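Lecture notes, unit on protein representations.

Consider one protein chain, 325 amino acids long.
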Amino acid sequence: MGVDQPQDDSELSKWGGRRFLNDRLDWNLLRTYLVIGQEGSISRAAARLHVTQSAVSQALKRLEEQLECSLILRHGPRFNFTEVGDEVLRIATDIYGNLSRINTALENRDNDVVGKVRLLAVSTIQSTAYDEFLAAFHRDYPRVDFEVEVMRSSDIINALLHKTATVGVGLCRIPQERLEQRILIPQRYAFFCGQRHPLFGRTDLTLDSLQGENFVSFTSDQIGGNLSPLAIFRDEQGYTGRIVASSPSLEEIRRLVCAGFGIGCLPEHVVSNDVAAGLLWRLPPAEGIVDVNVYLLWNREQKMTIAERIFLESFQHMLAAQEAE
């Protein structure tokens, strides 16, 4: 049975136009558009692609001309995607994923990639998508070995800048010029206390109720650190309590808060089970303190082995699929 053919001249014109678009559409323009969408900024897209902002803007203009529609609505330096722009971005994400799989298939016809990936990560990463990605990667590439080292986010960033590791998973409050970053886990930090604390279980609390309370603090929430917004918030509220315990480890901060040393700021999704079990109590403000996301990080200038490159491309494809959902 043959392919359905157009029935009249008008339909023939549309059908021919679609075939012509398929033949002439430049993937490089779609790739640039995909990076614009991922970065949310023309200037950041230009930095990532190592081209000028003018080149990125011209690529976007050519793509809109080829598609004969507007993809973004500009508001000065900011922009929003049109409805068509959102759909084209989803399609570009799928195309990029398929091209990545083709590249992987060519390099790995016999699924025989051998190598090692050194991964640096902060402690207590809770993400089902991340866990499933690692399981799938190991299934597909069983001969790729891993060295996973847990360390502070500042040390992860330093190691990546010095090219001593392939990728990192950690906090990065201030974007680094040579590092790429993609959100792995959105995190909202909020105040909590343990069941041994006098504020536990109280429903009449306000922000003023926390005045004078002692704190359990991350060592990185000092000014300039990745969690410095927490220290800034305490200062803005005029809290006078002492920092009675500190640690770089999220798990140790949780332990100390549960033990009643003081109130502490923790990621909501990490301690949700502890709240449900009655080990921790959520304190004001209701909207939480600040968003401090966990990122996939890598050095764009790093020379990578095939195993490292496949791992990073697979990781990015997982994140792109997650963003498109």
